[in-house]
Structure formats: C-alpha cells, structure tokens
Amino acid sequence: IFFNTTYVQDYNENVTVANNTIRFNSNGIQFWGGFLNMSWVYGNIVYNNSGSGLILDYSSDVKKNPLNVSVYDNQIFWNNDWVVVYANDSIFRGNSIYENGVVGGLENMNIITTNNVTFANGTMNRSQTGGFRLFRIEDTATNIFFVNETFNSSSFTMGAGVNNYTLQWYARVNVTNPTFGAILGAGVNFSNASNATFGFIRESSAQ
C-alpha cells in the first residue's frame, strides 16, 4: 500500500499502522497525544517525505503525550525532518532509522519531554553528509533506555532540561564440547577497556 498523504491519528486507542509504504508526503506517520493509547506501528517503510518520517507528538489541546505506543520492524529513512518522539511508556524495537533530518542540519531523531521509552535491537545511523548528529535528547527526557541498539554513542547531543539515558548491551555465550556434554572448569573472559559495569546471569551450569 502506498500512501500519498500523511497518515495522521488523533485521540484514539488501539490504533494499528502496519505494513505500508509511505513516501512523498509532508510527513509520514503522525500520532498526536491526548487519549492516544495502546497503539502499534510496525512493518512500515517510510521514506522520501518532505517533513518527518514519524512523529509521536504532544497534544497542546489536552497537554498530554501519546502513551504505550509500540514501534517495531519499521524502516524510516531519507526524510527531510527528524523523527520526533514525545511518547511516554513506549518501546521501539527492531527498527532501522537512518539519514533523516537532512534539511537544515537536523538530528536523525529528537527525543523530547518524554519518560520511560526503550529502544531495543534496532539500528540508527546519521546522515553521511553535513555532520548531523544521530539524535538529540532534550526538555526533560528521562528514563530513556537503549538495549542492544546499534548506533554511535558519541554522535548525539543533550538539550535543555534534566535529561538521562541508559545504554545496555547483552551477550549470550554457550560453552560446550562437540558432543554437547558438560565441560569441567570452563570459563569465559570478558575484556573491558572503558570501565563499563558487567553483570552476569547464569542460565544453566555443568553437572
């Protein structure tokens, strides 16, 4: 399905935008706040729009952000404006978001005045021209988590307000022999060059 106009949703619950190709519009997908709750955006390809590819926007009418929005397995790229995230209690998973915000030197993504948003198992890349930043966190954006997200952690900027984010990467290691039997005394060494904190969860042990 090709949308030739922006997909806009306002003041609803249980909204799904799935498996569309959206291009050549002012904006791609735009959700307003208010009563927008428990909604899903997945499997979409959004590109070459003159504005933003995705906007989860604050509603000035009722002064609320969108809530509980799941955004996963989307490709959002080559849009002239940045991806805008105001949504609270939401998750981005498995998305590819890259080379947005190429007009006016904008960042690839802007995370604004939001709380409790997780980005997991996705990829973000900035524009290869103009030196634009990967993303911007500003105006009291708190409890922002990046879990196994692939991006350049040095290519971002912090704006006004008290903002915070957490980076987490997890690796799973399986130690076994060719017959899948127990190996006595086996161990795994992790090298740490940046003084990060390591935590371990043992799923099983040798008998």
Describe the fold and architecture.
This protein has no helices and 20 strands. It starts with a strand and ends in a 39-residue tail after the last strand. With 207 residues, the chain is an all-beta fold.
In short:
The protein is an all-beta fold. The chain contains no helices and 20 strands.
The proportion of residues in beta strands is 35-45%
Kindly name the structural category. mainly beta
The number of helical segments is 0
Order of helices and strands: EEEEEEEEEEEEEEEEEEEE
Most strands sheet: 7 strands, parallel
Distance between the termini: 55 Å
Radius of gyration: 20 Å
Strands, count: 20
Helix content: under 10%
Biggest sheet strand line-up: 2-5-8-11-14-17-19
The coarse silhouette is globular
Q: Name the average pLDDT.
A: 81
Could you name the ranges where pLDDT drops below 50 across 5 or more consecutive residues?
Answer: none
Offer a few descriptive terms:
207 residues, seven-stranded parallel β-sheet
Task: Describe the secondary-structure layout.
Layout lengths: L1 E2 L3 E3 L6 E3 L2 E3 L5 E3 L5 E6 L2 E3 L6 E3 L10 E6 L2 E3 L5 E3 L4 E4 L2 E3 L10 E4 L2 E6 L2 E3 L9 E4 L3 E6 L8 E3 L6 E4 L39
Parallel strand pairs: 1-4, 2-5, 3-6, 4-7, 5-8, 6-9, 7-10, 8-11, 9-12, 10-13, 11-14, 12-15, 13-16, 14-17, 15-18, 17-19, 18-20
